[in-house]
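Final report, Chapter 2: Outcomes

The project's central promise was a pipeline that accepts a single protein chain and returns its three-dimensional structure in a standardized token representation, suitable for archiving and comparison. That pipeline is now operational. To close this chapter, we reproduce one record exactly as it appears in the project archive, with the input sequence first and the structure output second.
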Amino acid sequence: MTAIIDYDAGNLRSVEKALEALGEEAVVTRDREVILAADRVILPGVGSFGDAMGRLHQYGLVETARQAAGQGTPFLGICLGLQLLFEGSEESPGVEGLGILKGKVLRIPDKAGMKVPHMGWNCLEIKPGTRLFAGIADGAYVYFVHSYYLKAEEEGQVAASAEYTIHIHAAVEHGNVAACQFHPEKSGSVGLAVLKNFITWKK
């Protein structure tokens, strides 16, 4: 069973439906015991970094998320959920993230002819040998909606990158923790393949 952390983050139901389409039992919950007992945990999210961290604190989910990741449960962050796994974001100065991974979340720089937020399909440069992208061809297209991007501290944790005004770390993978800036639940067959790969991970 996969627990989807519920902190009023917006795209929870679409993630739940994508998992159900793959035959995976999924529950949207903020119950600490359910999350810690789950086979896998997903932290989705849309919206602002500061507001999201505020809601995670409000619902007592900050330590729950850290504990789930720390006990070896396969853990996936999606979009804002990727950013929350890191230490902080330029979007909300002074607000601490979960700090599960190390890196900077920065605003996408402006560039003539390219709009921010970055909305739409973009191809990925996929690192060979990652579990999250097993069986997915380099150059595959996925769907993004974001104004801030990840620059991971550890290049070795980067599972896929994209180019949009700047080099974006589009996905990371480190031990039992993975995350993607794009929305796999909105990325057609490629996104479903990413989620299918994730739900095969074991504790």
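Archive annotation: DSSP finds six helices and twelve strands in the chain.
This record, like all others produced under the grant, will remain available to the consortium after the project formally closes.
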